[in-house]
Design brief:
about 0% helix, 9-stranded antiparallel sheet, mainly beta, 4-stranded antiparallel sheet, Jelly Rolls
Length: about 200
Amino acid sequence: MGTLKIGSASNRKGVTIEPSVVLFNGNNVVSIKSGSTEIWSNEKPLQLLIPKMTSNTSPSGEAFTQYTTSTAYQAFDRLLTSANPSYGCHLGDNVTSSYVGYDFKKQVKVKQAKIYANSGSAGLVLNFMLQGSNGDSWYNLGEKTTSLTLSTANTVYNCTIDLEKAFSYSKFRLNVTGSDTLGQTGRYGTQIVEMELYGW
């Protein structure tokens, strides 16, 4: 394994370009970093990082959500059946925004998120923002720019957030907002059925 460092320079507009480091193995380039940011990687294929959760803390890490904390893990239990409209992590009652997330307890690199959602209310439009944290502050990583419309009640819809690069954090959460009330009183509010994080 070897490295090649390229010094900083200024472009035609006078903006300083950060030093770049090229990591290579033999004749194969493994990754390219600009400053501390990885801008290209030839690493192994993306892997599903969150295990099949059976509780908020089993088998590892910790699932969490803003309101209905007891069901947080149901966003990571790998159950996509629509036999019961109450499945998944309920986002709360009579709220217009909420979040659900997972704490790995160590830093991991995430490059992609897949989201499965449903609601007892047809026509609800959801907006998603994936955020990362290593402490108390949260940082926006990527969003679903085209809103996901749940046009039919109790039907699972899905979308993917492809991040522009791999982000390294220990905690990730999905911040969800909607065009109407996300959480209806009772069991027919919006659920995040599954949230999958992919990386290394």
